[in-house]
């Protein structure tokens, strides 16, 4: 894709190229197969394939190597390179380089700026072997810049290799463990050399292919060193000295940490087991974190990418927990004062947490800090955080690192903010009732129009989803209970018309009344709502709205979760009010018995959702889509899956309707070329497009009471816990912390007996 060149006059090498429209999407270049490498200059391209090297494009300087200077508009094989074993191609503005598997470099094009060395004067229209006089080593890599060339050589004079250094280290560790004579001195020397040198760390532990560290091999070696250190403290001393030297070297040259090879050494330092040792960590951790924060931003992205691929045990044991221990120890030692070095540490831990979110390698609980969540004045930190956002202040707040705060701390903040808002609204309402128009609230009217009046005008019946028929109880407006109170938001409910009355009563409130403490009155029943009636109301209402005959949600048996009914006949106002019910419950600290997939809470927080989220709700469908993406035969995707760009949308009651994902989708077969697009459209339709109106209305109602700054601190999993409580109960923890009375003990038979 990009600028398109066309043939002229039927001769692929003749005439000036004619510029056609720019290509905004990739288009296949015919005539080349089994490509192993591609390079582009300013106006020419070179392709390395298994059967030869091809070039095409601008050629006034001979950069195509075709023994001519005419522009070429279709790929043409470079005959002079046949049999040379070219494995890499690279292009500058007007020159091209070709690297062979034997370490030779050929070049063509202009050499006016010296980009082809001393082997070429002027220009070369065919590839010429470039000679290097300063070393007899083989060239391992070549890169062409605009008017420059660079080469990486493996010198024959170094005398060691990746495998030989690692073998020496492993041999010394195993020999020391076996008690071989003289192995201790040799081991200490190797440890002091290797673990103090960024270059040798890369040689020994860098991945053979690509960038990054072999973290599992690194972990194995670290454990062997610690094991040897038990027998001889000098080994640990050498390891400690080498690590300090390495960190000092990285700190002094942090401005040079710009390439993946140089940055990946930081992985080995953070995985170092010495960072788990209190005194050593107190000295090392702030230094290495400062190195990271002094690096350019690309280094942060690389570290985050690499950490996202870490095994869970190493990420937790060698990275996250040492960070947490250091943070807690430092805060305790410095009596809660947060120094700049601690801020750097928190920023690096934030990178680790960000990387963990990609694959959810570790549960969110691994990043909670109990000391901060339970011992610090989180409310004061929240106030500072709000001031930073509103007034541009720069005070430190742990709310800037919400992953440190456990769910209870965040819930307390939400409840505190709700209580403050309730108190404020009650006070304003009292002032209005006492002094009338002087303190008149800015009343914006009911949040939803009267459903009962609208339904009565239309059909003479009750509004909303179907309810039980007649009731002997009077309607809310005729029950004798005051509809408005200065100290509370009043709901008057008939049990026989639970959903109808609930939505009508909630809809008639204005926003100010909804922000008051909620009081529920079941018509015809004595008693004061001290919390129990309110909880029963929400429980009964949730059971009702999830029923199929309400036409609001559909149930997925395989995941036991509910999702929006995109084919619902109910109005958007109903979905808005249901969302408001959920927000009202959270605002009044009531847990709901509802079962939605995690993607609902991600969408409420404005996060993107994808096939992983679909897998939680419809695992069988998601597995089928993944299988389609991974299919490589036998047989084509079209023949095996027989799929078209159509999706079956649930309607409720087990019925579905076919919907085209694109115009004419029922006639468009899914093939190898378009299967990714099909899966993306399918997932987006199920999770977004098909329920857009219903979800947007629900979200609007949900955020009416909960859209405060505190909500930004929650992750989707934490919001789920806030709404419906802990989805998975830890019975082992319950057993370990149970207290037995009345003669019972943990070993009593009735206690040991499993419930039936």
Give a summary of the structure in a few sentences.
With 756 residues, this protein is of the alpha+beta class. A hairpin with a 4-residue loop joins strand 8 (95-100) and strand 9.
Keywords:
756 residues, alpha+beta, four-stranded antiparallel sheet, 13% strand, globular
Topology:
Layout: E1 5-6, E2 18-19, E3 35-40, E4 44-49, E5 52-57, E6 72-77, E7 86-91, E8 95-100, E9 105-110, E10 123-129, E11 138-144, E12 149-154, H1 162-177, H2 183-194, H3 198-205, H4 215-231, H5 233-252, H6 260-263, H7 265-270, H8 278-294, H9 297-307, H10 312-333, H11 340-359, H12 370-375, H13 378-391, H14 407-435, H15 451-459, E13 489-493, H16 498-508, H17 511-514, E14 518-522, H18 532-545, E15 553-556, E16 561-564, H19 572-587, H20 598-604, H21 611-617, H22 619-630, H23 637-641, E17 646-652, E18 655-660, H24 675-687, H25 692-706, H26 716-724, H27 731-737, H28 749-752
Parallel strand pairs: 13-14
Antiparallel strand pairs: 1-2, 3-4, 4-5, 5-6, 7-8, 8-9, 9-10, 11-12, 15-16, 17-18
Describe this entry's structure for a reader:
This protein has 28 helices and 18 strands. By secondary structure, the chain is an alpha+beta fold. The relative contact order is 0.04. 44% of the residues lie in helices and 13% in strands. The chain has a four-stranded antiparallel β-sheet, with no helix packed on it. Helix 1 (162-177) crosses helix 2 (183-194), helix 4 (215-231) crosses helix 5 and helix 21 (611-617) packs antiparallel against helix 22.
